Amino acid sequence: MFIYQKIKSLVVDPDGIYYLGPKGSFSHEVALKIQGENYVEQDSISSVFAAVNKNNGIGVVPIENNREGPVNDTLDNLFHEDEIYINKEIEMPIRLVLAGSSYTKITSETKVYSHNHAIQEAKRTLQKLGITRVIPVDSTSRAAILAKEENALAICSEFAAKIYGLKVIKSDIQDGINITKFAVISNNITLEGDRSVVLFTVPHKPGGLFRVLQSFYERNINLTMIYSRPLKEIPWRYYFYLEYEGRYMDELMQSMKSNVEEIKFKGSFSFLYDNARF
Amino acid sequence: MFIYQKIKSLVVDPDGIYYLGPKGSFSHEVALKIQGENYVEQDSISSVFAAVNKNNGIGVVPIENNREGPVNDTLDNLFHEDEIYINKEIEMPIRLVLAGSSYTKITSETKVYSHNHAIQEAKRTLQKLGITRVIPVDSTSRAAILAKEENALAICSEFAAKIYGLKVIKSDIQDGINITKFAVISNNITLEGDRSVVLFTVPHKPGGLFRVLQSFYERNINLTMIYSRPLKEIPWRYYFYLEYEGRYMDELMQSMKSNVEEIKFKGSFSFLYDNARF
């Protein structure tokens, strides 16, 4: 409950909370933890960023998964949208259920819809149940919508099953550990918290990245995430996405500035764990 | 022609050249530049790695695109398959055509199939031609197969159009710069060439990555690509994929070894440009 309180205190009457849809998505589930009145689904990560910009709202997007790595669209939008900052990160375990309409019996004809990643993770359960007709779709919430068909099931979240009126047949069917980090974004920068994100480009010469990392090493700061992403129009040139333990420090920024070409500080914020993980 | 000669000299009677299919894919086009007799399509990157291992063959897989970034499946397989090495990298411009059966006339009913990335890149051309019925499929070669339907077109490579007997209606319809790097892989390590790849993990403490990069900085070695990828079963821990200018150096390896937890050298090799780029 402690975490829920903390998130509530973040919100100051936003003009909408925009999340990556469709309804019933994991982003939707995270968005509902934020106090608000107007929850609006968007069909892409770029649309969430655009809606936040346009309406001075709050956005919820996935940023990293422990199996798949970074969510490229989120990183690229953070780099290109200068007026959007990270206000919170929320870690959420991806728990999957098998669900269908209440009269579905599993037979050799039963179809199962899900996102390809979820299918991979539920492989063992599907084998045990003798299910072989598996149809990949673009999200687990889309799967829940399609599971309303006759003799069809979905691998989705318990939340999506509830939203679309499906009955849960089997819970926790995922193999292994699967956690997604979500970012809460807005046009307001925050400078307090235990995590910070900074994006930058370095000169293309020996030691380019090394010199930037030196600023962190000399201050004994731990990096929690570093990804490189292509600049697209200039082949084989990159920007870096770096998350570190600690808050904004003017002196650290000054030290970095002497070794970067471009630098964008994206905020200091709290890193929250979803209760359900423990 | 110089490049083609070079690639020929690479091959010593392999037991099959395995590429990411379907037939007509860009990997297929690259595979055909390698002299051989037995070209075999595979339905996933992991299958290419498995086939190379099983048959002591040669594999062709995409490794990086200047817009999309790294091809995660290729990086992860290189990290997990200890006996597979990179023998060449080949850079290929992704040029797209609009193609269909010879009697297709563009009307408001005309469907266009393609991979989502290719659709994005051909947006302006589609607008000019007044085409609005666009159907995303999982590859440009799959699009070429589907374009055999009545009143359908594909956005695909000229090569795919040729393989599937389509007529090219418009060439070079891509916007912007789009280049993919492909890796030629096998069970044999090569130690000569102007590029090298090494994969490693670092201790999770301040300066972990910094100390490894120091080995390169002190030797004035330029990094051409560095990506981090999750270790999956241990959340928020990573391995690094690093490509540098230069060949294998025993002394550099020794220097790195004192600062890494795990290290896998994946070979030194030539970096080739496809002629068509110039």
Question: Which descriptors apply to this entry?
Answer:
homodimer; 278 residues; alpha/beta; D-Maltodextrin-Binding Protein, domain 2; Alpha-Beta Plaits; ten-stranded mixed β-sheet; five-stranded mixed β-sheet; 10 helices
State mean pLDDT of chain A (0 to 100 scale): 90
Distance between the termini of chain A: 13 Å
Assign the CATH topology of the largest domain in chain A: D-Maltodextrin-Binding Protein, domain 2
Shape of chain A: elongated
Number of helices, where a helix is a run of at least 4 consecutive DSSP H or I residues of chain A:
10
Using the CA coordinates, give the radius of gyration of chain A: 21 Å
Which series of helices and strands of chain A comes N to C?
Answer: HEHEHEEHEEEHHEHEHEEEHEEHE
Biggest interface and its residues per chain?
A: A-B, 37 and 37 residues
Strand content of chain A: 25-35%
Secondary structure: number of strands of chain A? 15
CATH class of the largest domain in chain A: Alpha Beta
Oligomer: homodimer
> pLDDT below 50 for ≥5 consecutive residues: which ranges of chain A?
1-6
Largest sheet of chain A: 10 strands, mixed
Q: Total domains of chain A, how many?
A: 3
Helix content of chain A: 25-40%
Structural class of chain A: alpha/beta
CATH homologous superfamily of the largest domain in chain A? Periplasmic binding protein-like II
The CATH architecture of the largest domain in chain A can be given as 3-Layer(aba) Sandwich
Domain ACT (chains A, B): 197-274
Keywords (chains A, B): Amino-acid biosynthesis, Aromatic amino acid biosynthesis, Lyase, Phenylalanine biosynthesis
Protein name (chains A, B): Prephenate dehydratase
Domain Prephenate dehydratase (chains A, B): 16-187
